């Protein structure tokens, strides 16, 4: 594939490159913060520049080099190797000749139907001998890795001092520090309370952390399916999802070309990539669940670990004796992986091979540092089925598996529901913390009612914000198309923005230090009629601007001291300014509040960061 | 305006009539349930017919005659007089020659700019002598009015027996009955815990109830403004909003033609109409807040009471001494009414005329049964300002005013915020219950973060669902255009559906008997691949169907036993069916769950209702 004469498929890829959305968001500048211990670290952040005499607002940036005007993007080459030297310096990995790609890996796609392999194939890395090369193993050994320092800097969003103001929030027993230090990260990982999904073969990664004492993260699902979608769209969707804030991306592809599409995604992804290996294994046995074997599954794990998949959803908690517990459910088993394994167990009248071989799965994961996302195969698919016997039986098993994985130094987080009415959400969080020994929780929503298909990003954002507040570490997005069809590009964006706002609402409610800074900045902009700042500071500047311009398209309206909602006479904010002006003259009225002046001290000085050129 | 020769403006109205969306929702049939005590009552409900052997699902119906194919709709004539005989039978009202409409009432609009008066003008009703004609007065006197029986039947959604199954919910101390009886309604109103907004001059009304022990309601705001919008759009928006589920509508018009537009809205509205009379009063003094007087305001109250406005937002809680409390706020005063009154107080260095004349306001309201929506003029407009001194000082004053209004037999509910992070929402509900003596709470959202303009229907739906769960009786919708511009028709629909799902999520969490029926029906449809039923049972069947058809447009896909999200091999629900089939053959597996069979007994038999022809 590296000859000068391009194939038709390669030309198609070239065209695809043009589709990828690059460039900064409005008024935004990429900065990179260097590490203290590991000087070479370049931790990306986004600074939103604001008018008036306000300091720029620094926000978490999951978008990778795509929003850096100085970065050259070529998806045929993939992103730069961030982590190669870190891995070499640890001295516990070796390259080797990886497993050969088979026709089955790509669903026997041939000719024009075969998506081309990613051009730059690197030999895979694995641990030397029986060494565990996981962040958990290093943390337990007292080692602060570059990955740990990277996420520590990242979590502080440019803040360099401990938060000294009163903390405003209710954290339900979480232990959120005033400043995230690399040592704090190490401790949290060592205790299993946080995970850095970072396969040693995903060297393009910008590490991030998932844990209750860190910022709430969100995941976006992408993936082709047997019915529709293509590889090109999927790479674009990954970039698109991270542009708007997805912290991890799950590739849930089924059908043909799974292997090659995944390669393209990982090589171009700055965020951790998760998969459900069972999907590909099922394709290898032509979609017949009963024909699945441990051998096929094991082979698939190695295949994906070599490619650099950062976390595996493994439905090892679905056990034979639990299947009858779902008999009276309104919606049965709604997890794809869960239903496949239930079918397998029942057909063979045997315990699940995932459960029986779980220790062997750990052996694979520890060699590459693939994190476990222990799948909730029996999650409820309707309000009626929430918090039932089947769901909690599985959760207890996931707790057992967590201990087994931890014993082998593997990183673990736990998947959760699903469909749950509001009054039953807290019990999910409480039981998860108890049964799974504080391993991070990662939920899908939950949806708080079943009656609004077409709006399930909203029914689920309600549950997601709440469980995020209660302690859930990562929220898997739901798009407006949930239950109805495949999400397109707009749906992906809507889902990501909706989940970013839910995660942020949770951060505010938990009292994360500094989380409210962005809210305050946008509120000041609103009060001072700085329309451009209001757009630029919002999660989706494009939509905010478009909505404004629908009613008030003229440029003059962007500096107007009123808005079309009320008109000039009824503008409460304009009147508030009049009141303050009047009050300033009058006696007995408090001085106008001092401008927010702490930015310079509390946050990283501009000269200590490396701006994107 | 009643001559045979039509003016240009009248012709314009005729064209408008065609714009009104009428006709039933998909697979839906209007039924009317008769009263027991008041036999002539026709309480509307919507039955959604479902495939298979399932009973139809009866849902609350706020849409009025517009969705009844048997009803003749002519917006020039308005809706039928539902309540005239009820009012006459009480024998405590009289017609009189109402206040003459002035040019000021319509903002001095003239000629082609003047929206024509509603053609069929009825002489207004008022109480005889000093009689209070409020539902509260009747309730205290032990009288169960037709309005009370109407809402009792309506709240049960066709259920005729007390709920006998275990109640699934957490109600935070509410007292939700197993069956809503007219006597229960009377008691709740007598205690001030519920309100039926029902001006005696709004005879077209289909009564509804607002209270913590009833279904959570939603309000939609409409209204023209000085900058844009027209009367025609507003009538259409009212019908449109109620079609999708708005339980009340607030007409927040400013600018010209306020009087005439409001007449058109009320005469055509099946739901209670609320206003902020201060807006019109301000127009009458040319938008100069300082020029407002009690006389102008009082005149406006009478004008609107005669037209049939069902509830007034009165910002009487904003007092002079509270204004300095807002000095250090990030966003000052964001309520239009609040800021106008604050400006007036400060300018005149006087206590608010609304506060000083509150008893006189009560005298007016009791003669027409206009309910109070005591305005939260100092609600927070940003996360930073939530739950501050100003906000809670006003809330305490609203509690005082509640007692004054109750002493004059006036119905009262209380407005609430606004912008509040999740961890501060419950305190709002708790303090409101305490300070306002359990008068119903009515909140705007609250928005749980400030950073997502363009998505504030979602940031606020999170807070709305939560506070609805905690006990808030009515949720004022927020559209995607909040903070950015004026909502159009699509925005109104999005806002209403979003708030319907939030209110329903709250009903589920509170454990309202039967609330889960619709969820269960849609979930069974989903599990059984009854796509049409899934669309028809959803809050927005059109969007659900459109989203499905984007991926799977063919009719065959509507009967497909899989969906495009997963494809046939990966369909968990299909596999679940396989599992059940396999298990049925095998031993030791529970029998498949019996179909839901209680509909016939628990709900009103089909022969006891009057179907729409």
UniProtKB/TrEMBL annotation, chains A, B:
GO terms for cellular component: cytosol. The keyword Lipid metabolism does not apply. It catalyses: 5-amino-1-(5-phospho-beta-D-ribosyl)imidazole + S-adenosyl-L-methionine = 4-amino-2-methyl-5-(phosphooxymethyl)pyrimidine + CO + 5'-deoxyadenosine + formate + L-methionine + 3 H(+). Zn(2+) binds at residues 419, 483. Substrate binds at residues 221, 250, 279, 315, 335-337, 376-379, 415, 442. Residues 24-94 form the ThiC-associated domain. [4Fe-4S] cluster binds at residues 563, 566, 571. One of its GO terms (biological process) is thiamine biosynthetic process. Keywords: 4Fe-4S, Iron, Iron-sulfur, Lyase, Metal-binding, S-adenosyl-L-methionine, Thiamine biosynthesis, Zinc. GO terms for molecular function: 4 iron, 4 sulfur cluster binding; phosphomethylpyrimidine synthase activity; zinc ion binding. Catalyzes the synthesis of the hydroxymethylpyrimidine phosphate (HMP-P) moiety of thiamine from aminoimidazole ribotide (AIR) in a radical S-adenosyl-L-methionine (SAM)-dependent reaction. This is Phosphomethylpyrimidine synthase. It comes from Thalassovita mediterranea. The lineage of its organism: Bacteria, Pseudomonadati, Pseudomonadota, Alphaproteobacteria, Rhodobacterales.
